[in-house]
Design brief:
This protein is an alpha/beta fold and 230 residues long. Helix content is 34%, strand content 25%. It is built from eight helices and nine strands. A hairpin with a 7-residue loop joins strand 4 and strand 5. The two termini are 18 Å apart.
Length: 230
Amino acid sequence: MSASAGNWKIAVENLDVFYGTRQVLKNVNVEAAEKSLTCIVGPSGCGKSTFLMAINRLIDEIPGAKAKGKIRVKLNDSHPMDVLKLGDDRLPQLRRRIGLVFQNPNVLPMSVFNNVAFPLKIMRARKKEIEEKVENALKKVSLWEEVRSRLNYPARELSGGQQQRLCLARVLAMGPEILLLDEPTSFLDERLAIKIESLLMELKKEITIVMVSHYLSQVNRLADRVYRLG
Protein backbone atom coordinates (compact mmCIF):
# COMPACT_ATOMS: atom_id res chain seq x y z
CA MET A 1 0.00 0.00 0.00
CA SER A 2 1.19 3.49 -0.73
CA ALA A 3 -0.17 6.38 1.29
CA SER A 4 -3.26 7.72 -0.41
CA ALA A 5 -3.72 11.34 -1.27
CA GLY A 6 -6.49 11.55 1.35
CA ASN A 7 -6.51 13.03 4.82
CA TRP A 8 -4.13 10.53 6.43
CA LYS A 9 -2.21 11.22 9.63
CA ILE A 10 -0.33 7.91 9.82
CA ALA A 11 0.56 5.67 6.89
CA VAL A 12 2.33 2.41 7.68
CA GLU A 13 3.68 0.64 4.62
CA ASN A 14 5.17 -2.85 4.37
CA LEU A 15 6.25 -2.85 8.02
CA ASP A 16 8.37 -5.76 9.22
CA VAL A 17 9.56 -5.97 12.83
CA PHE A 18 12.12 -8.39 14.21
CA TYR A 19 13.18 -9.21 17.75
CA GLY A 20 16.59 -10.63 17.01
CA THR A 21 15.97 -13.33 14.42
CA ARG A 22 12.27 -13.73 15.28
CA GLN A 23 9.89 -11.84 13.00
CA VAL A 24 7.01 -10.34 14.99
CA LEU A 25 5.28 -8.33 12.26
CA LYS A 26 5.30 -9.05 8.53
CA ASN A 27 4.24 -6.71 5.74
CA VAL A 28 1.81 -4.67 7.84
CA ASN A 29 -0.07 -1.88 6.06
CA VAL A 30 -2.26 0.50 8.06
CA GLU A 31 -3.58 3.98 7.36
CA ALA A 32 -5.14 6.20 10.04
CA ALA A 33 -7.03 9.31 9.02
CA GLU A 34 -6.58 12.60 10.81
CA LYS A 35 -9.01 13.09 13.72
CA SER A 36 -10.22 9.52 13.73
CA LEU A 37 -10.01 6.38 15.87
CA THR A 38 -8.43 3.34 14.27
CA CYS A 39 -8.61 -0.01 16.08
CA ILE A 40 -6.05 -2.79 15.80
CA VAL A 41 -7.35 -6.26 16.63
CA GLY A 42 -5.98 -9.77 16.48
CA PRO A 43 -5.06 -12.78 18.62
CA SER A 44 -2.70 -12.57 21.58
CA GLY A 45 0.93 -12.55 20.55
CA CYS A 46 0.33 -11.29 17.01
CA GLY A 47 2.33 -8.09 17.57
CA LYS A 48 -0.36 -5.50 18.30
CA SER A 49 1.61 -3.82 21.09
CA THR A 50 4.78 -3.99 19.02
CA PHE A 51 2.96 -2.20 16.22
CA LEU A 52 2.08 0.71 18.53
CA MET A 53 5.63 0.91 19.85
CA ALA A 54 7.00 1.09 16.31
CA ILE A 55 4.94 4.19 15.50
CA ASN A 56 6.72 6.39 18.04
CA ARG A 57 9.97 4.41 18.00
CA LEU A 58 9.70 3.12 21.58
CA ILE A 59 10.55 -0.19 19.98
CA ASP A 60 14.13 1.14 19.95
CA GLU A 61 14.24 0.49 23.70
CA ILE A 62 13.90 -3.28 23.17
CA PRO A 63 17.33 -4.93 22.74
CA GLY A 64 17.69 -6.55 19.34
CA ALA A 65 14.53 -5.00 17.89
CA LYS A 66 14.62 -3.85 14.28
CA ALA A 67 11.92 -2.36 12.05
CA LYS A 68 11.87 -2.18 8.24
CA GLY A 69 9.45 -0.50 5.88
CA LYS A 70 7.86 2.93 6.25
CA ILE A 71 5.93 4.64 9.04
CA ARG A 72 4.95 8.03 7.72
CA VAL A 73 3.28 10.66 9.91
CA LYS A 74 2.05 14.18 9.29
CA LEU A 75 2.66 16.44 12.27
CA ASN A 76 0.96 19.82 12.25
CA ASP A 77 4.02 21.99 11.70
CA SER A 78 6.13 19.77 9.47
CA HIS A 79 6.16 17.91 6.20
CA PRO A 80 5.31 14.20 6.22
CA MET A 81 8.18 12.22 7.75
CA ASP A 82 9.19 8.59 7.99
CA VAL A 83 9.73 8.04 11.72
CA LEU A 84 11.96 5.04 11.04
CA LYS A 85 14.50 7.40 9.47
CA LEU A 86 14.61 9.92 12.33
CA GLY A 87 17.82 10.37 14.27
CA ASP A 88 17.88 9.55 17.98
CA ASP A 89 18.07 13.25 18.85
CA ARG A 90 14.56 13.79 17.46
CA LEU A 91 12.87 10.94 19.31
CA PRO A 92 12.06 12.76 22.60
CA GLN A 93 10.11 15.42 20.69
CA LEU A 94 8.43 12.77 18.55
CA ARG A 95 7.26 10.88 21.65
CA ARG A 96 5.81 14.02 23.19
CA ARG A 97 3.65 14.48 20.12
CA ILE A 98 2.87 10.79 19.60
CA GLY A 99 1.96 9.58 23.07
CA LEU A 100 1.70 5.90 23.99
CA VAL A 101 -0.21 4.45 26.95
CA PHE A 102 0.62 0.82 27.72
CA GLN A 103 -1.88 -1.80 28.83
CA ASN A 104 0.04 -2.41 32.06
CA PRO A 105 0.39 0.92 33.91
CA ASN A 106 3.96 2.21 34.03
CA VAL A 107 3.65 4.70 36.87
CA LEU A 108 6.79 6.53 37.93
CA PRO A 109 8.21 6.10 41.46
CA MET A 110 6.93 9.48 42.59
CA SER A 111 3.74 11.20 43.71
CA VAL A 112 0.43 11.17 41.89
CA PHE A 113 0.88 14.84 40.97
CA ASN A 114 4.45 14.43 39.74
CA ASN A 115 3.53 11.44 37.59
CA VAL A 116 1.43 13.77 35.44
CA ALA A 117 3.65 16.83 35.90
CA PHE A 118 6.96 15.10 35.11
CA PRO A 119 6.99 15.56 31.31
CA LEU A 120 5.70 19.12 31.69
CA LYS A 121 8.59 19.94 34.00
CA ILE A 122 11.01 18.52 31.45
CA MET A 123 9.41 20.84 28.91
CA ARG A 124 10.04 23.70 31.41
CA ALA A 125 6.42 24.70 31.69
CA ARG A 126 5.61 27.31 34.35
CA LYS A 127 4.31 26.19 37.75
CA LYS A 128 0.81 27.58 37.25
CA GLU A 129 0.55 26.02 33.79
CA ILE A 130 1.67 22.67 35.18
CA GLU A 131 -0.90 22.79 37.96
CA GLU A 132 -3.69 23.63 35.52
CA LYS A 133 -2.71 20.94 33.03
CA VAL A 134 -2.38 18.28 35.72
CA GLU A 135 -5.83 19.06 37.11
CA ASN A 136 -7.43 19.19 33.66
CA ALA A 137 -5.84 15.91 32.59
CA LEU A 138 -6.94 14.14 35.77
CA LYS A 139 -10.47 15.44 35.28
CA LYS A 140 -10.54 14.20 31.69
CA VAL A 141 -9.80 10.63 32.81
CA SER A 142 -12.32 10.84 35.67
CA LEU A 143 -9.61 10.58 38.31
CA TRP A 144 -9.51 14.04 39.87
CA GLU A 145 -12.19 13.49 42.51
CA GLU A 146 -10.54 10.23 43.56
CA VAL A 147 -7.04 11.64 44.04
CA ARG A 148 -7.38 15.39 44.66
CA SER A 149 -6.71 14.86 48.38
CA ARG A 150 -3.86 12.43 47.66
CA LEU A 151 -1.84 14.27 45.05
CA ASN A 152 1.32 14.00 47.17
CA TYR A 153 0.88 10.28 47.87
CA PRO A 154 2.99 7.70 46.00
CA ALA A 155 1.29 6.81 42.71
CA ARG A 156 2.05 3.14 43.26
CA GLU A 157 -0.45 3.11 46.13
CA LEU A 158 -3.27 3.63 43.65
CA SER A 159 -5.32 0.71 42.34
CA GLY A 160 -4.57 -0.82 38.96
CA GLY A 161 -7.45 1.00 37.31
CA GLN A 162 -6.41 4.31 38.85
CA GLN A 163 -2.82 3.79 37.70
CA GLN A 164 -4.03 3.07 34.18
CA ARG A 165 -5.99 6.33 34.09
CA LEU A 166 -3.07 8.19 35.65
CA CYS A 167 -0.80 7.10 32.80
CA LEU A 168 -3.41 8.25 30.29
CA ALA A 169 -3.60 11.61 32.08
CA ARG A 170 0.19 11.98 31.89
CA VAL A 171 0.11 11.61 28.11
CA LEU A 172 -2.92 13.86 27.65
CA ALA A 173 -1.29 16.62 29.70
CA MET A 174 1.35 16.96 26.96
CA GLY A 175 -1.29 17.66 24.31
CA PRO A 176 -0.31 14.95 21.80
CA GLU A 177 -1.36 15.06 18.16
CA ILE A 178 -1.47 11.27 18.00
CA LEU A 179 -2.54 9.00 20.86
CA LEU A 180 -1.58 5.31 20.88
CA LEU A 181 -3.55 3.17 23.33
CA ASP A 182 -2.94 -0.46 24.27
CA GLU A 183 -6.15 -1.88 25.80
CA PRO A 184 -6.98 1.38 27.64
CA THR A 185 -9.93 -0.04 29.62
CA SER A 186 -8.55 -3.46 30.55
CA PHE A 187 -8.25 -2.60 34.27
CA LEU A 188 -11.50 -0.65 34.52
CA ASP A 189 -14.97 -1.62 35.64
CA GLU A 190 -17.87 -1.09 33.26
CA ARG A 191 -18.78 2.35 34.62
CA LEU A 192 -15.28 3.76 34.22
CA ALA A 193 -14.76 2.01 30.88
CA ILE A 194 -17.83 3.84 29.54
CA LYS A 195 -16.41 7.16 30.77
CA ILE A 196 -13.07 6.52 29.04
CA GLU A 197 -14.86 5.50 25.85
CA SER A 198 -16.81 8.77 25.97
CA LEU A 199 -13.52 10.64 26.44
CA LEU A 200 -12.04 8.91 23.38
CA MET A 201 -15.05 9.84 21.29
CA GLU A 202 -14.46 13.48 22.24
CA LEU A 203 -10.68 13.30 21.78
CA LYS A 204 -10.92 11.94 18.25
CA LYS A 205 -12.59 15.18 17.21
CA GLU A 206 -9.24 16.87 17.85
CA ILE A 207 -6.49 14.24 17.54
CA THR A 208 -5.75 10.93 15.85
CA ILE A 209 -6.10 7.78 17.97
CA VAL A 210 -4.81 4.30 17.24
CA MET A 211 -6.03 1.77 19.78
CA VAL A 212 -5.52 -1.92 20.43
CA SER A 213 -8.60 -3.64 21.83
CA HIS A 214 -9.83 -7.21 22.19
CA TYR A 215 -13.36 -6.12 23.14
CA LEU A 216 -15.30 -6.45 19.89
CA SER A 217 -18.27 -4.51 21.25
CA GLN A 218 -15.92 -1.67 22.14
CA VAL A 219 -14.36 -1.75 18.69
CA ASN A 220 -17.80 -1.59 17.10
CA ARG A 221 -18.74 1.42 19.23
CA LEU A 222 -15.57 3.45 18.76
CA ALA A 223 -13.70 2.58 15.58
CA ASP A 224 -13.80 4.52 12.35
CA ARG A 225 -11.60 1.85 10.81
CA VAL A 226 -10.42 -1.59 11.92
CA TYR A 227 -7.30 -3.56 10.98
CA ARG A 228 -6.63 -7.16 11.95
CA LEU A 229 -3.12 -8.45 12.61
CA GLY A 230 -2.18 -12.11 12.64
